Fold this sequence. Notes:
By secondary structure, the protein is an all-alpha fold.
Amino acid sequence: MTDSTSPSAPVPAAAVHPLAGMAIGFVGIVIFGATLPVTRIALDGFSPAFITFARAAIAAAVAGATLIALRKPFPRQHALSLFIAGILLVYGFPGFSSVAMQTVPASHGGVVLGVLPLMTATFAALFGGERPGMAFWGWSIAGAVLVMVFSLSGADIDPGIGDFWLACAALSASCGYVISGKLARTRPGWEVISWALIVTAPISLAGTAFIWNTGIYQPDSHALMAMAYLALGSMFAGFIFWNWGMAIGGIARVGQVQLLQSFVTLGLSALLLGETVTPVMLGFALAVGVVVWCGRKAKVG
């Protein structure tokens, strides 16, 4: 008998396990947490546009090989939803965040993107079929306020155009998360991101080919490894755990785990890029962590 909560079997919409979903989703958040600092490393060898298209093309190749090997049929009834999720997650978030990383430190971007949980909860309520209670909204708003105060407080960096692109990235990601989270209620999370990569693969391949001559800047081994991580980790593996977690734990509730991504991004920015992690940054990261802890039992219908 196949376990209904395993990544190899569809999860019924009624099977909701908040704690397990948050734990599984956190694995995805750890993988996603390295995206911004690794993107800055990749920018030493590739243009933002090339990174956006090439990492999607590489991930699509891996996804396609996996689907063929396991003989998975294409879910025609979900083709449009998969395409929209692919546009938002495969191009929207990576593209906007790559542009943002040209003008803001990855550590700053990691905390600013802490607004994602509130945006994800909002979209989950609008078209995800979930109804968060007042306490949930209260903690979500508290987390968003903390993030925005940090962004606008002049904590070692002035707000600028990079914050606008980060906001666009957050909007794309949160909407895409809800669509893919809904799809993951009916099929394994890895299939959702795999098919989203496949249906958008023509765009990925065309974009990569078009920018090939101008988007590569003699990358060194670090830039090449960064590109590999963005393709296989951020673009593929992270979504396997993230979609699975949202499917069994609820989109809005598991979305709150994104607030903890600040810890991961801040730590990896210091480790990989040598960026300074100030007490102010750590204080805000700790504060949003407390918000997640307090809001984990808030009612979500």
